[in-house]
């Protein structure tokens, strides 16, 4: 409520815009579309007189091809989503003899918010109101609460519409593109014979990598015993503290403390100066003598980390986090459902 009100006060959003966003969300939840199968051979590039099409991209650059499929899928979803929305409104408008633009607000009558509701919004956002009194802001708060009523009415109307006129996305599924990625004895969690192997290229200083760890833990918990998770170093050059943090983590392997160090480094992702990293590592119970001895050979440590980076670059990794689920490339800190869908399909094979 608080964040919604601040956003609305700063820049009131039109009903149509807010409803449209909601419609797309519901449409895509109603039917989880499969991936697109499309080999566009009529579109090509000529290099030195030789023609190359998308099948050549797939053969020589599977990651680039995978990204193409993902972006093409999203484009199809958006295009069909807009089309489906218009058609649904046309159907209902014809049935009820009203304008398509009136479908979602049909029958809506705003009720006057109670004094208690108005006061609650005011008190929750008082610090952001520039010292204005309740009387000075009451009109805008009432408008915000009525706007919320209208949104809820629109959501209920749309649920009724898609119940009567179900929407299913019928998009063909492509061949799965897999990339061979070596583990090279890097730290791992899970059984070696697990049906699912996830290889993660990540950076302890990367905020998106930190965000992805919650999803990663959820996946390991849900598929415990079925999934093997391998971590490979990929500190980005513009993260000045990342390389040292990765070296420090690798120096905890001998004491069997790698994953404890892994967790504490990501928890402190925004504060990875050398002295703090040392303190965090030793705080996990790593032997101080062993740690200091290991960290002396920084050339060797950097060489091992750079080997991970080079291996990642060879298979198309250019940013973090990057994942390979049984060789299927997934880029970025995506929601749980994006990974779960792939894993479910892999388990069924």
TrEMBL record:
<feature type="domain" description="Thioredoxin">
    <location>
        <begin position="167"/>
        <end position="348"/>
    </location>
</feature>
<comment type="similarity">
    <text>Belongs to the thioredoxin family. DsbA subfamily.</text>
</comment>
<dbReference type="GO" id="GO:0016491">
    <property type="term" value="F:oxidoreductase activity"/>
</dbReference>
<protein>
    <submittedName>
        <fullName>Oxidoreductase</fullName>
    </submittedName>
</protein>
<dbReference type="Pfam" id="PF13462">
    <property type="entry name" value="Thioredoxin_4"/>
</dbReference>
<keyword id="KW-0732">Signal</keyword>
<keyword id="KW-0472">Membrane</keyword>
<dbReference type="InterPro" id="IPR012336">
    <property type="entry name" value="Thioredoxin-like_fold"/>
</dbReference>
<keyword id="KW-0676">Redox-active center</keyword>
<dbReference type="InterPro" id="IPR036249">
    <property type="entry name" value="Thioredoxin-like_sf"/>
</dbReference>
<feature type="transmembrane region" description="Helical">
    <location>
        <begin position="16"/>
        <end position="36"/>
    </location>
</feature>
<keyword id="KW-0812">Transmembrane</keyword>
<dbReference type="InterPro" id="IPR013766">
    <property type="entry name" value="Thioredoxin_domain"/>
</dbReference>
<keyword id="KW-0560">Oxidoreductase</keyword>
<keyword id="KW-1015">Disulfide bond</keyword>
<keyword id="KW-1133">Transmembrane helix</keyword>
């Amino acid at each position: 409520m608080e964040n919604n009100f601040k956003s609305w006060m700063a820049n009131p959003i039109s009903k149509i815009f807010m409803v449209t966003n909601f419609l797309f969300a519901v449409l895509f939840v109603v039917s989880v579309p499969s991936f697109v199968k499309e080999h566009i051979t009529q579109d090509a590039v000529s290099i030195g007189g030789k023609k190359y099409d998308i099948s050549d991209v797939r053969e020589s650059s599977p990651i680039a091809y995978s990204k193409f499929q993902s972006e093409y899928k999203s484009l199809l979803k958006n295009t069909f989503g807009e089309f489906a929305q218009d058609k649904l409104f046309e159907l209902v408008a014809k049935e009820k003899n009203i304008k398509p633009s009136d479908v979602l607000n049909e029958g809506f009558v705003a009720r006057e918010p109670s004094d208690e509701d108005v006061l609650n919004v005011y008190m929750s956002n008082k610090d952001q109101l520039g010292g204005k009194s309740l009387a000075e802001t009451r009109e805008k708060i009432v408008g915000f609460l009525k706007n919320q009523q209208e949104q809820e009415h629109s959501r209920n109307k749309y649920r009724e519409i898609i119940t009567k006129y179900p929407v299913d996305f019928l998009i063909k599924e492509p061949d799965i593109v897999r990339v061979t990625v070596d583990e090279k004895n890097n730290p791992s969690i899970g059984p070696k014979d697990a049906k699912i192997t996830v290889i993660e290229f990540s950076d302890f200083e990367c905020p998106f990598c930190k965000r992805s760890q919650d999803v990663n833990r959820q996946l390991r918990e849900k598929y415990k015993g079925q999934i093997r998770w391998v971590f490979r170093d990929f500190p980005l050059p513009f993260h000045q503290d990342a390389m040292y943090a990765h070296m420090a983590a690798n120096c905890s392997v001998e004491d069997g403390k790698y994953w404890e160090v892994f967790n504490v480094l990501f928890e402190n992702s925004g504060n990875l100066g050398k002295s703090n990293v040392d303190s965090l590592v030793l705080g996990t119970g790593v032997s101080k003598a062993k740690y200091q001895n290991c960290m002396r050979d920084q050339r060797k440590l950097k060489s091992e980390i750079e080997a991970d980076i080079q291996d990642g670059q060879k298979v198309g990794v250019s940013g973090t986090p990057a994942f390979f689920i049984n060789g299927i490339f997934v880029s970025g800190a995506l929601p749980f459902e994006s990974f779960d869908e792939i894993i479910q399909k892999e388990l069924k094979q």
